[in-house]
Specification:
The chain is 44% helix and 14% strand. Strand 1, helix 3 and strand 2 (113-117) form a beta-alpha-beta unit. The chain has a seven-stranded mixed β-sheet. The protein has helices at 9-59, 75-84, 101-108, 120-133, 166-176, 211-214; strands at 92-95, 113-117, 139-143, 156-160, 182-186, 197-199, 206-210. The relative contact order is 0.11. The protein has six helices and seven strands; from the N terminus they run H-H-E-H-E-H-E-E-H-E-E-E-H. By secondary structure, it is α/β, with parallel strands linked by helices.
């Protein structure tokens, strides 16, 4: 039968199809935006975690009561330290070894050398440098707090200190070191000891103290 004012089936089919095109397109766009959002969030979050992981070992020492910051030794400072080690024997330790320059230089001179450093990134880098320089058998590095280490087994001690720590470290070394040991201070001298040798100028100045020189004094309480 004809008539009745009904909508042709073809028209209904077209409307039905066209009615779902727009929502499907918007849904796809929304998923795409969400994917980009998750990706950007992941990148930003990962970057912050990486920055935190790298920066924390460098920032944490600054929060300590006595801070020993990482300041790389200059070429002249290293030369002056090596000069103070001439004719010396026995194991060497660098207190706060940083990137390992002093330990590696001493190892190249034939010393069995050890570095103690709180920053794990610097310790790992120092180990890599020692391997690259071919002295990994003589140069060892450990993650440790200097105040928790006993230095009695070392004949040569090198320290790039700061004024705030020198009096306390002076007492510690005076109690622990053997009579034939030598202490080499860079940048800042010890407050009470009289140096046996001094070389260099300005920030490159290096002071050498022989334990036998001050061991006869009455130990401070």
């Amino acid at each position: 039968m004809e008539g009745g004012g009904g909508t042709p089936p073809e028209t209904l089919k077209e409307e039905s199809q066209s009615g779902y095109v727009l929502p499907t397109s918007l849904e796809a766009q929304g998923l795409k935006k969400n994917s980009w959002g998750f990706l950007i969030t992941g990148i930003v979050g990962g970057t912050l975690v990486a920055v935190y992981a790298v920066a924390t070992p460098f920032i944490t020492p600054a929060l300590r009561k006595i801070c020993l910051p990482f300041v790389p030794a200059t070429t002249k400072q290293i030369e002056n330290v090596v000069k103070m080690l001439r004719s010396r024997k026995g194991p060497l330790v660098d207190i706060g070894s940083g990137d390992g320059r002093i330990v590696i230089a001493a190892a190249k001179e034939g010393f069995t050398a050890v570095g103690y450093e709180l920053n794990p990134w610097l310790v790992w880098y120092s180990r890599y440098r020692a391997w690259r320089e071919g002295v990994q058998d003589l140069a060892q590095f450990y993650i440790s707090d200097l105040w928790k280490v006993t230095f009695s087994q070392y004949s040569n001690v090198v320290i790039f200190g700061v004024p705030q720590m020198m009096p306390q470290l002076e007492k510690k070394l005076e109690l622990e070191l053997e009579g034939d040991a030598r202490v080499i201070a860079c940048r800042f001298p010890f407050p009470h000891w009289t140096p046996d040798q001094v070389t260099g100028e300005g920030i490159d100045t290096v002071w050498a103290y022989d334990v036998s020189t001050f061991r006869g004094r009455e130990r401070r309480p």
